[in-house]
Amino acid sequence: MPPPFPISNVRYLGLSSEGPLAAYVKAGRMGPSRVPRGLDSDCIRYWMRTHVNGSLPPVSYSRCRQVLAYYELGDLTSHFVRLLNPKAEKSRDHLRNVEIVELAGAVGGEAEVRLAGQFFQRVLVAHPQAVTNAEQLLPAAIALAPVMDLRPLAARLAAAQPEDEAAAEKRDEQLETALPEAQEEIALRNRIAGRLPELAAEYLEHGESLETDTPVWAGRRLRKMALQGEAGHAAVLTTLGRVLEQTGDEATFQRAARAVLYMKGKLSFAQIGRLERIPFDGDDFLWDEDSRPK
CB under 8 Å to 112, separation ≥6 — which residues? Predict the structure, then answer.
């Protein structure tokens, strides 16, 4: 049985996907935040395997992760895992490893997540740059939630000898605030991973999490549930439908309505009219420009 909806309607046929994909991956931190829609998944696989090696800047691997997450191309995880460098010395190389580990945690299978978790503890936490790059390590730890134990990183930070007062303040803030918040996020994700109402709340940004990546994580979970068959598809649409009926918040209504349309659900005429009166705001994860009501 075919899936009830496509992840994205292909609009860049064949190798024509290379242009927008390369532009997105190589744009750096100042580039667009939204993964280009309409790309051909096979072209993404070809381009990643051909052009992504161990020499790109760390931010490019972050952008690769976002592409793989949107298009659900976890089969590419093994390509990236092979790029991990356990002998990395420079901070830039350490950060590249951090980004690849986060990618594996986000889109990899169980075995790849376990491997990435081991690399995190054995290599990344033990690295001389671990204290300096602790802020970047925490999102990777959260992505590895099912296998993550933050105690080794906490011990590493506690044992560090800051070079100056500013470094000491940063280390203390990480120990007292950032690490506990990351631990709470890990516990939250492990607790609600299969709970539809909580996932919908997180996707609609009305849940417990304060992490900016959590709506995408929750959106992917909702999408996977909806793609598992008629029952899962109906359950997700029913949950979002309740939100549409009950919310008075326009941003929440817009986000939920777009998710329903993306998943090939139906809106009433009144709901379509309400949606069309709301100015576009934000780049919703569960949205393809071809998802608008026909």
Answer: 77, 78, 81, 104
Q: Where are the domains of the chain?
A: 14-192, 216-291
Within 13 Å and on the Cβ side, how many CA atoms surround 177? Answer: 7
Number of Cβ atoms within 10 Å of the Cβ of 99: 23
Q: Model's pTM, two decimal places?
A: 0.94
Answer positive or negative: Cα dihedral of 20, 24, 27, 30: positive
Q: What is the pLDDT of residues 72-100, one digit of tens each?
A: 999 999 999 999 999 999 999 999 999 99
Nearest to residue 108, comparing CAs of 147, 137, 161? Answer: 147
Question: Torsion angle, CA of 162/164/165/169, rounded to 10 degrees?
Answer: -30
Three-state DSSP at 203 gives helix
Q: Encoding tokens for residue 43?
A: 């072209």
Residues 146-194: pLDDT tens digits? 999 999 999 999 998 888 888 888 889 999 999 999 999 999 999 999 9
Kind and range of the H or E element at 88?
none
Report the alpha-carbon distance of residue 236 to residue 199 in Å, rounded. Answer: 10
pLDDT given for residue 30 in this prediction: 81
H or E element: which one contains 70? helix 58-71
129: which residues sit within 8 A by CB, 6+ positions away? 90, 91, 94, 95
Read off the DSSP letter of residue 45. Answer: H
